[in-house]
Design goal:
The protein is of the alpha/beta class. The protein has helices at about 35-45, 65-75, 85-90, 100-115, 125-150, 155-185, 190-200, 210-215, 225-230, 255-270, 280-290, 295-310; strands at about 5-10, 15-20, 25-35, 55-60, 75-80, 235-240, 245-250.
């Protein structure tokens, strides 16, 4: 007899709705605060052994992360799914309404019917590295925006204020970059894997930390294809019958941060000053087959990521 209870979680910044699946028409539902107290209240409301629970939530911003970590630590099975999957599932069931309660019930039903794979939390070092990298990107973005803004100022005091902001952001960028470097060099596993990744052509100092944060030690994915799918770099074919056959494109259903960090290295090795390097035969073959420039770049991005996964594994 199946003793697993399926729970759908529709989560937002401050609250989340939970629905316990019974069958196609019967659900138990309640709402909770997205806080540590709310997490405890959820388990009390469910009144089940954590090992009997399979909870599914959407990857909505970062709002889902604290609850997912909490439930995983308690021994529950937690799955995290792309919101597009639930939207498509709702369309397939011809569900027209969209409320927090409806979404929670739909997610619970999806969990029971589709049995999504369990989410495995990254190691603390990997998670810490990713959070620092995101802060670094935020600071760089702020610094760039402030530089552009400075060129449009005409008041002396405003320019001076803008320069002080730029100096502060530049200092913060150096500090968080130093923290990232220290984290990698002080952890033997990260340090060893960083050297492995740095041996791959096109993978440089800016790319290595991101690959470490997302790929970990290589055990996260069984095959390189899973890693490229995780990054949204797999081709998406659109063909139906004999009359519909659109040009294939990448799915983009994955982490855009990986695609962003791989774009410049791939472009440089495809059409830049490094085009005579390690990937010359690969790029030449695609170009000779008439592939557009962007297709070649994306193909090389996919190849670099696949090699990185294989090297780590």
């Amino acid at each position: 007899m199946d003793h697993t209870y399926y729970i759908g979680i529709d989560i937002s910044c401050k609250t989340f709705d939970a629905a316990l699946y019974s069958d196609n028409t019967h659900y138990n539902h309640s709402s909770f605060d997205n806080t540590a107290q709310g997490f405890e209240a959820l388990l009390s409301w469910l009144d089940k052994a954590p090992s009997d629970l399979h909870l599914l939530m959407e990857a909505t911003n970062v709002y889902w992360e604290p609850l997912a970590y909490y439930l995983n630590a308690k021994g529950a099975t937690v799955s995290v799914i792309n919101p597009k999957c639930i939207k498509g599932y709702a369309n397939s069931l011809n569900i027209r309404s969209k409320t927090d309660i409806v979404d929670a019930k739909l997610i619970a039903r999806y969990c029971a019917k589709e049995q999504p794979q369990a989410w495995l939390p990254p190691k603390e070092t990997d998670r810490g590295l990713l959070l620092k990298l995101r802060q670094l990107e935020h600071l760089k973005g702020q610094h760039q925006s402030e530089q552009v803004r400075k060129t449009m100022l005409r008041d002396f005091d405003a320019i001076a204020s803008c320069q002080r902001t730029l100096d502060f952001l530049a200092t913060e960028i150096l500090l968080i970059q130093a923290a990232i470097d220290d984290l990698i060099t002080s952890d033997e596993t990260l340090k060893h894997n960083a050297k492995l990744l740095a041996s791959i052509p096109a993978v440089g100092k800016l790319t290595v930390p991101w690959l470490l944060a997302y790929l970990g030690d290589g055990s996260k994915f069984k095959k390189s294809k899973q890693a490229t799918s995780f990054a949204g770099l797999t081709p998406m074919v659109h063909q139906s019958g004999t009359s519909v056959e659109k040009r294939a494109r990448i799915s983009k259903i994955g982490h855009s941060e990986i695609r962003k960090v791989l774009y410049m290295p791939a472009m440089g090795f495809s059409f830049g000053k490094y085009k005579e390097g390690a990937y010359q035969s690969f790029v030449s073959r695609l170009v000779n087959h008439g592939k557009p420039k962007m297709v070649v770049i994306v193909a090389l991005m996919r190849k670099i990521l696949a090699i990185a996964q294989a090297v780590l594994k």
